[in-house]
């Protein structure tokens, strides 16, 4: 992950945030027994929000040429919507990290404009800008001689929060990322596993509740199982906080699992496609995207598609049903309408007779077999093609 060597990612003090909306998070985490009471003001003020409400970050014709003449990003225009997670994927060296680092000016753009919440920050004070954005990188960069609690408290201390508020915040964050403060707060980074260090890095980046979080291969140093767990926990945290996230990853599965939208880049920061995960998988906009999503696209789509009524065969035992095969046996546990297609696939594979009853609010509304699963997959793919075509018409 190359960068301008003169620049650092020192977290610092964010400007005051606007008064939170009255619709604060409905269930703030309760402080654990025996801990310092939570301060009167809510620690989490941003409710989980729907993406697409406005533009959080806009890149306008941004270009980066490094001092040795390498053109990392030729001419990139891209918008990150408020509250969405935009995943940047693409082959090694295509300019993902450069793009991310231009957002917080760890790398200075050569030309073009970058807007944060509508404000042109291309020439704003870079340190001040970084104070408004969390930043998580693969090798977390925890301070080795500070405890976990001190690491997480880095920004609150810079913000001169009082001790009680800082302690409450640190404990809340550690709870949030699944590390028991009683066990972990006093440990040092070398006393943690890679996955635990990664969690501390995420907690530290979230400590001041930044509206925007930049993440560069944040789970890259973790083994596949731990990575999967971290991803789902992070997805949950993000849903709760409504943080806007720009995530760089090599891992298409990670982009599909976490991204509201995916930006596929090719060499020179060329934007090949910017679309939701289903569209990228089912309707790749160019051979470069098709190449990136590869042979696994159909399997990945299974995880994204949902079972709908129109996909189903007749109700087992109902009119028109194949009576010989139709009735659900005790081992054929029904599956709910709206279940993900990969769950449906797994259930079907285990079914005693290749058919699974499907229920809606407890009532059997149809049955699932191989043909219906295929129909569902085709439906998802067709819809993605239609959406992509519509996007092309309006572009
Ligand atoms: N400080 C630098 N000086 C010169 N060239 C650089 C510098 N940083 C990056 N580059 C070049 O810019 C291009 C884009 O690099 P960048 O790190 O943004 O790509 P990437 O897509 O994040 O790659 P990876 O996935 O391998 O991390 C590459 O060709 C790289 O060699």
UniProtKB/TrEMBL annotation:
Bias-annotated ranges (Pro residues): 12-31
Annotated ABC transporter domain residues: 57-292
Keywords on record: ATP-binding, Nucleotide-binding, Transport
UniProt biased composition (Low complexity): 1-11
Stretch list, region Disordered: 1-40, 314-333
Name used for this protein in its record: ABC-type quaternary amine transporter
Highest rank taxon of the organism: Bacteria
Family statement drawn from the similarity comment of this UniProt entry: Belongs to the ABC transporter superfamily.
Native species: Cellulomonas cellasea
Single annotated GO MF: ABC-type quaternary ammonium compound transporting activity
EC number of the protein: 7.6.2.9
One Pfam entry name: ABC_tran
């Amino acid at each position: 992950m190359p960068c301008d060597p003169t620049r650092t990612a020192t977290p610092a003090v964010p400007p005051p945030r606007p008064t939170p909306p009255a619709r604060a998070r409905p269930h703030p985490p309760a402080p654990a027994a025996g801990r310092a009471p939570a301060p009167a003001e809510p620690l989490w003020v941003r409710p989980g929000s729907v993406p697409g409400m406005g533009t959080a970050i806009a890149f306008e014709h941004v270009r980066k040429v490094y001092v040795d003449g390498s053109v990392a990003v030729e001419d990139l225009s891209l918008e990150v919507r408020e509250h969405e997670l935009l995943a940047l994927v693409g082959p090694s060296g295509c300019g993902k990290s450069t793009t991310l680092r231009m957002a917080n000016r760890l790398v200075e753009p050569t030309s073009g404009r970058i807007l944060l919440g509508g404000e042109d920050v291309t020439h704003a004070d870079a340190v001040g800008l970084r104070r408004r954005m969390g930043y998580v990188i693969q090798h977390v960069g925890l301070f080795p001689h500070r405890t976990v609690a001190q690491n997480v408290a880095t920004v609150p201390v810079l913000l001169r929060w009082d001790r009680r508020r800082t302690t409450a915040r640190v404990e809340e964050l550690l709870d949030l990322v699944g590390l028991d403060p009683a066990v972990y707060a006093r440990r040092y980074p070398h006393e943690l596993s890679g996955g635990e260090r990664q969690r501390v890095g995420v907690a530290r980046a979230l400590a001041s509740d930044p509206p925007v979080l930049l993440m560069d291969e944040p789970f890259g140093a973790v083994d596949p199982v731990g990575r999967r767990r971290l991803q789902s926990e992070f997805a949950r945290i993000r849903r709760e906080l409504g943080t806007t996230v720009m995530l760089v990853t090599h891992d298409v599965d990670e982009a599909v699992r976490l991204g509201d939208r995916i930006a596929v880049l090719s060499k020179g920061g060329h934007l090949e496609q910017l679309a939701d995960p289903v569209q990228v998988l089912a309707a790749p906009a160019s051979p470069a995207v098709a190449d990136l999503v590869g042979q696994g696209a159909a399997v990945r789509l299974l995880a994204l598609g949902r079972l709908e009524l129109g996909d189903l065969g007749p109700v087992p035992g109902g009119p028109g049903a194949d009576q010989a095969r139709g009735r659900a046996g005790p081992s054929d546990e029904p599956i709910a309408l709206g279940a993900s297609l990969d769950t449906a696939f797994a259930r079907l594979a285990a079914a005693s007779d290749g058919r699974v009853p499907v229920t809606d609010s407890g009532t059997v509304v149809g049955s699932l077999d191989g043909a219906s699963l295929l129909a569902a997959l085709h439906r998802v793919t067709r819809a993605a093609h239609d959406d992509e075509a519509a996007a092309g018409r309006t572009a």
